[in-house]
Amino acid sequence: MGVLMSARVRVQSSTQDADQLVKSLMYLSVAVLQLLLVCAFGEALRAAGAALGDAAYASGWELRAQPPRTRALALLLLRAQRPLVLRAGGLYPVTLNSFASVLNTSYSYFALLRTINE
């Protein structure tokens, strides 16, 4: 979030020349794109993990009930009950909702700093 804040402050500074403004805009767009890619991957991982349990349950396993397969499938279904989520620092889930939250918070801080500066 600090990267986004510093880039926005650079973009909004009125004393910059055109070259510095273009560099700041490129830096901001790359930082946002990098965050978006990680969050999109986290969202895809979460969706695939949610679909795994449904696919295993709908596989018709009850028709081919062999003890080793049934046991493995039961473990898979048990594991699929807990959501599969990519976490930043082991705490914060990395999804598209968190991407929107980071952008929203970053802009709120920027607006507050800009109001205080004026």
Automatic annotation (TrEMBL):
A biological-process GO annotation: signal transduction
Keyword Protein biosynthesis: no
Key words, A-Z: Cell membrane, Membrane, Olfaction, Receptor, Sensory transduction, Transducer, Transmembrane, Transmembrane helix
Protein name from the UniProt record: Odorant receptor
Record's keyword annotation contains Transmembrane helix: yes
Listed Pfam families: 7tm_6
Membrane topology listed for this record: Multi-pass membrane protein
GO molecular function, one term: odorant binding
GO cellular component: plasma membrane
Domain of life: Eukaryota
Chief localisation class: membrane
Subcellular location: Cell membrane
